[in-house]
Specification:
Largest sheet: 9 strands, mixed
Structural class: alpha+beta
Strand content: 15-25%
Shape: elongated
Oligomer: single chain
Number of helices: 24
Amino acid sequence: MKQLTSSQVRQMFLDFFKEHGHMVMPSASLIPQDDPTLLWINSGVATMKKYFDGSVVPKNHRITSSQKSIRTNDIENVGKTARHQTFFEMLGNFSVGDYFKKEVIPWAWEFLTSPKWLGLDPDKLYVTVYPKDTEAYHMWHDVVGLPEDHIVKLEDNFWDIGEGPCGPDSEIFYDRGQENNDVAEDDPENFPGGENARYLEIWNIVFSQFNHLPNGKYVDQPHKNIDTGMGLERVVSIIQDAPTNFETDLFMPIIKETEKLSDGKKYAANKEDDVAFKIIADHVRAVSFAIADGALPSNSGRGYVLRRLIRRADLNGQRLGIKGAFLYKLVPIVGEIMKSHYPEVVDQQAFIQKVIKNEEERFQVTLSSGLNLLDNIIAEAKKSDDKTVSGKDAFKLFDTYGFPYELTFEAAQDAGLKVDKKGFDEEMKAQKERARKARGNLQSMGSQDVTLMNIKDKSEFEYGTLEEKHAKLIDIVVNDKLVDKADGEHATLIFDKTPFYAERGGQVADHGEILNQNGELVARVTDVQHAPNDQNLHFVDIILPLEKGQEYILKVDQKRRRGLKHNHTATHLLHAALREVLGTHTHQAGSLVEPDYLRFDFTSLEPMTKKEIANVEKIVNEKIWEEIPVKTTVTDPDTGLKMGALALFGEKYGDTVRVVQIDDFSTEFCGGTHCENTDQIGMLKIVSESAVGAGTRRIIAVTGPEAYKYVTDRDEILKEVQDEVKATKAEDVTNKISSLEEDLRASQKEAEQLKAQINKAKAGDLFNDVKQVKGLTVIAAQADVEGMNDLRELADNWKSSDKSDVLVLAAEVNGKANMVISLNDKAIKAGLKAGDLIKTAAPIFGGGGGGRPNMAQAGGKNPAGLKDAIAKVLQEVEEKQN
């Protein structure tokens, strides 16, 4: 079998169908752009709906793609089975009313079996067809030449989802051998299409030829379509002789890196640890690509899926002895594996890592105590008569410790317990009802309650102030109740005035410290939010007791505030520059201002070109270096609009607004904190530009020290490359690389020619040792070669040499056994078949193989058995002639 990487298999598939007139379509975003019925893109055909339903006519009616996909319907099986993944790639070729069965079936066979392409053993391939689909059976049997015992008729082979296009389908299976099966040889499920591990489905071809009418009738479609899907992970597991998808080059680098992070754990040492390794490897791929495509962790929809995957991976990290946040460290490995076809993870690596790390750190705060509680709950449930975790306990884990129900369910299931889902749902419903009643008609906060709604005291935010020495503590809330004193772990505080900015308008909150009048640290401010009546709520970790009515010193973390100011002002400059370069139709669609980076979403139907990105970056930096004062004005909305201020769609403005002006370049309504002058930003560097959703793009950028670090990091990389390629100047690097590539191609060509000459010389030595076995001449030897390709080349030389009737060549390569058997016409007429001979020999060196009557090959894991295998072939040759 060919030695191919996953990248080579993917590219080979696309190249094959490109040669057959297909348009190669880039993978679509995991977030559906025009299908509200889907949470994620879950297959290749999901992106083709608009073509198949006729709403859009493709430029080319033949399309091929490798589509990244996410499915989470059976997430609990990931890691426990050989093939389940949340994130996977679907290779597909599609015909929109163009070709049909007589083209697509031979193409599938050609790609799978031709030596030019995958070169799989034809004897190991089986297909299933719909019993009434005589045309598909005819194509497989009479055109392709598949024997009857390799074609299975199954009633299930009909793709139908109710009303609409439907039709029979044909699945292709690869026989992994009975030694890889999980059912007995005489088990009724031991057939292609049955529930077994021996026959692995690798490709499905759907012949969409009927229309299922509302009245239940099936009529012919005027335009017949083809929809195929081949799982990349599955076919790579075959090519790379991996027992499961996880032992391929798509996952093993991630698993190996996880081993390094673990407490001495090793993959393949025990089943329980293996499950944890697999879950982590799968989930980090899924969340990396989902975040790259614009999804973010949250409590609903796609965000909830990401949060669950990250937390599930972290729990399994704990099982491997990994302490603290770690999943984010695996993102560069994911990017490296996939960069040949999907550069987005590498391009957005820093942002993806930050999102995952932030989410992990949030979870880690409660993880340890939550796990202890979970262990106690499971221990108590084991003692109970019904062996059930109560809905109340499951909800406590969810509400207090952030454990999604599914994680509790899986942990209970592993312990042989049940979970009271109905009780959990009732607790959830009761909580929502409490929140709804508390919230009333106010929507400014997601967690406000009656206590906060009833607080009417005024709380003033002081712009431009970093320390307030006489802030009076006017309200203390602990466990949803107003108290006069706080002396616990956490509290929510309201002061009459504060320098702390409360999160709003995309800018995250200030952090900092609260000191008493003696200068002692009494609390740390971890978050600031707006209360229902617009007070500033300070969420604090308490160190010393606090009392209502006392004055305190409030100190903002200056470094954090500085980063927020710089990035917020840079966001305004970026918005204006985008409108200047892309047009005034471009508007802000969302933003996030963090201390060390900024994220800006904007309306755009097309990706930005490199030139446009460079132009926007240049304009922003020119405005920074012009040292423009940043002016703020408090006025009414109408006056603000007359000043030229941009109002964001969907934002509600009160009686007074704050207008932020940067000369005549940028004027916006904004309540955030800003620089006094643009030169304080230093510089801006755009890190990435990508799609978020339909008509929405996203820019990630850094400023000041972070921008300097970004530039210097890349400068170091350039210097390393310059040294590596021995370029005198950085400007010469690209020319030097081109020259080296040209030299490499020439060297490779020369090496191939030399290799061919060496093999020819080796053939001369090998072919001189001819044995007589009954009436046939035989050459049988072990060859010193580098791989199966060399053995095949020697076999080709033998065919033209007329040195013997039978050729048996074996070789040990990288600790593995390889064998080729070739026969001339005389040997075949004597009753020999190369495929039969190889099947007899292969088990002796721990492998399997097959082929045609005149040529066969096999590979195995036990090269020590090659000598005996050759002897066995000679014995068979002798016995066949008796």
